[in-house]
Amino acid sequence: MQQLTSWSIFLLSCIGHTELWVMVVNRSHAFPIKCTHLRKFRALHDLAIVIFPWLLLWKCGLNSGGLLTGGSLADQTTFWRITIMITLLAAIPWFLGILRWQWRRRFEFHKVASREVFDVLALARLGKTSGDIRGSRWHPSIVWPWNEVFTLEVNVKSIPTSNPLATSRRPLRVVHLSDMHFIDCPGADYYRFVVKKTVELDADAIVFTGDLIDKPELLETAVEILRPLTKVAPCFFILGNHDWRYDYEYFRSTLAASGWKCVTGSHERIQLADRNVLFAGSELPWIGVAPPSVEHAGVDLRILLSHSPDQFRFAQKSGYDVMLSGHTHGGQVVLPVIGPVYAPSIYGVSFAAGLFHLNKLTLHVSRGIGAKDPLRWRCRPELTCLEIFC
Ligand SMILES: [Fe+2]
After folding, report:
1. Residues with CB under 5 A from ligand 1 (ion)
2. What is the pTM of this model?
3. How far is the CA of 212 from the centre of ligand 1 (A)?
4. Which of 157, 173, 336, 385 is the one with CA 20 to 30 A from 42?
5. Which of 282, 246, 284 is nearest to 372 (CA)?
6. How distant, in Å, are the alpha carbons of 113, 134, 161, 260, 312 from that of 357?
7. Ligand 1 center to residue 190 CA distance, Å?
8. How far is the CA of 40 from the centre of ligand 1 (A)?
9. What is the pLDDT of residues 237-276, one digit of tens each?
10. How many angstroms does the Cα of residue 352 sit away from the middle of ligand 1?
């Protein structure tokens, strides 16, 4: 029994220590901090997580009087007693996170009205779509087993609103694209496939919620690929934190010149399917200012595009009905039982992806299309058509 307790303390301490680093890394990526600092911090996090179990084993495990050689917590030095107590406490939010995922968040994460999945790489091999799906950039993640980075999930999701007229007319169809991350992996033809599927969704409006480019040389290609969508429906966009690292005003003006309308810090009213709809945008906390409050705007539907889901309290206070976000990529890796672990948000993985009803506000967080590190596991790239009943 004592052996079991000692091993449990040892394991929970390692889990709690990892959880502490994960919490800090997730929050640090929610703020406008230079990517060089974030990279160094992530390296420190990797090192600390690998070293801690060995250090614990050395100082409080297999040594004389250690936890695994018949000693107890009281036998350890004050420093290690305090360290172990702190890390044991930090294991509590880890367990609560698993419970939250199992009871609620995984249903919000996966909730769709309909779903279609495409293995774009396999389609290209069969000659059913054009060829440059992988792109020329090689990254170690590509060889990861069951990496889903070259797949695409096309989802339709329903959003009810409180408007009593809503049930008597067809829903508004807003296609939500996010986090393209043009970086030459996937290749240009993967994105052309995404655009083809977007066109097939027969949208009333198309929105993009930021992180366009991670390789500025691909801007012209990205704009050439996205331009056809402006012929299909009104297109609105904002930029994200990855664009912020480069000459983002040039990205903005180039995409805007192709017919996409930037709504950051402002709003745009438009008539769509017999309804007055307002689109506004926020690139906070990285770029610009918040859009104005729209509580008394006198429209049928108020939609906020915000790269980060962390702005949802602003959206609630400012009278928006729907907020569309990206940034978190669904965590990119969704572990069995545990769910996603990493998401750059002050709320951790709470809003990693999915549809959330937060009082009067509906928040949709897209898993996005691309990623700087091309690894997705049980977390496919996502193109979503939102059917909004308003
Ligand atoms: Fe992103």
Report:
1. 179, 211
2. 0.94
3. 8
4. 336
5. 246
6. 16, 36, 10, 29, 11
7. 17
8. 19
9. 999 999 999 999 999 999 999 999 999 999 999 999 889 9
10. 12
What spacing in Å lies between the alpha carbon of 252 and ligand 1's midpoint? 16
**Start-end of H helices in the chain:** 2-28, 35-60, 78-100, 106-110, 120-125, 188-200, 219-226, 241-244, 248-257, 312-317
Integer Rg of the chain from CA: 23
What mean pLDDT do residues 150-167 have?
A: 85
- Rounding to the nearest 10 degrees, give the CA dihedral for residues 42, 43, 47, 48: -30
Q: How far is the CA of 34 from the centre of ligand 1 (A)?
A: 15
Q: Give 107 Cα–ligand 1 centroid separation in angstroms.
A: 23
**DSSP code string of 11-44:** HHHHHHHHHHHHHHHHHHTTS---HHHHHHHHHH
d(CA 349, CA 368): 15
* Tokens, residue 27: 């929050």
Q: Is 274 within 8 Å of 204 (Cβ atoms)? A: no
User: What is the distance in A from the centroid of ligand 1 to the CA of 243?
Assistant: 9
Phi, psi of 194 (to 5 degrees): -60, -45
Residue 164's pLDDT is 64
CB atoms within 10 A of CB 36: 9
CA distance 40 to 158: 41
Cα of 272 to ligand 1 centre, how many Å?
29
Q: Please give the Cα distance from 232 to 207 (Å, whole number).
A: 12
Q: Residue 200 has which token pair?
A: 């097939």
Helix (H, G, I), strand (E, B) or coil at 182: strand
- Contact 367/329 with Cβ under 8 angstroms? yes
Distance 69 CA to ligand 1 centre (A): 47
CA of 230 to the centre of ligand 1 (A): 22
112-389 has which CATH code? 3.60.21.10
pLDDT digits (tens, 9 = 90+) for 285-300: 999 999 999 988 889 9
**77-94 burial, b if ≥16 CB within 10 A, otherwise e?**
eeebeebbeebbebbebb
Residue 214: closest CA among 190, 193, 244, 259:
244
Write the DSSP assignment of 92-120 as a string of letters: HHHHHHHHHIIIIIHHHHH--SEEEEEEH
**Share of residues in the chain with pLDDT > 90 (%):** 82
Residue 14 Cα to ligand 1 midpoint, Å, equals 30
358 Cβ contact list (under 8 Å, min separation 6) = 312, 316
